[in-house]
Amino acid sequence: MDKPGKKQQLARLLYFIFGATIVGETGVTSLIVSEVGVSVLSKLNFINGVLLFLLPTFFFSQIDSSHRGNLLQKTLRAAIGIVSILFILYTLSAAADLTFYTAFLLILYPLSYLLKTILFLTFWTVAVDVNDTMEAKLSFPEITAWGFIGGLSGAIASRLLLIPFSPEFILLFWVFLYILAYLYTAKFNSIYGQHLVPIEAISGRSKNTRSLIGDIKEILTMPLVKNIGYLYFFTYIAIFMLDYFFGLLPVLSIKTLLILRGFNSHFILLIVLSP
């Protein structure tokens, strides 16, 4: 039977993680488009692709040997610290009219993408660890729905905050949501942490020493994995191209900075609402 509060706590945690992701994406994208221009997004998306390619080396190969709850907490704690530092550096350098102040925005964009990927993957690993098959069938649809509601809430909140405040304030709101997610993670970890111990600690086995290249070769022999890989490859090319050209049109036709930022927030809201 499902332990009291487990589904609700997972739903709230995903709500804040998804909401923080959308808020961060809205704030960073609005600032980059208005301060640097849309042309740089294609280069940043390329960096996102490289980071996603390198992610298995530094993350997936370690997740089975790490306490999932602690890993999620550490990731959120690192996100809070790094985003806060970059926000402070950007604000101070922009106030001092330093020429390199936009460099901090260019770091925040791929960072937000990397954090989104790591947090979602770690969250669902945690959710799988604490639920058996029957519990997962019953609770995961509702948990996913709350994640969607969190993303929708983040998109709406970002749009409303852009009216009275600057995008810099949205970055602070981004950090605040990460803090809430961290607090919920700490609470959840204190209750269900015993279910999140490393696989090696449960089975008594030592860490697998096979090379990463060998693991990749073994995985790539699976036809289903190949087909999914091809599908994702061409899908993401199409998505990034559409994002670039769709972002270029308003930059060429909209001259008011506030309207441009509002358009970007509406665009992200529509992405959240799309199936």
Automatic annotation (TrEMBL):
Keywords per UniProt: Membrane, Transmembrane, Transmembrane helix
Annotated transmembrane regions: 12-33, 45-63, 75-92, 98-124, 145-163, 169-186, 227-246, 252-273
Keyword field contains Cell inner membrane: no
Keyword Membrane: yes
Protein name: MFS transporter
Organism: Chitinivibrio alkaliphilus ACht1
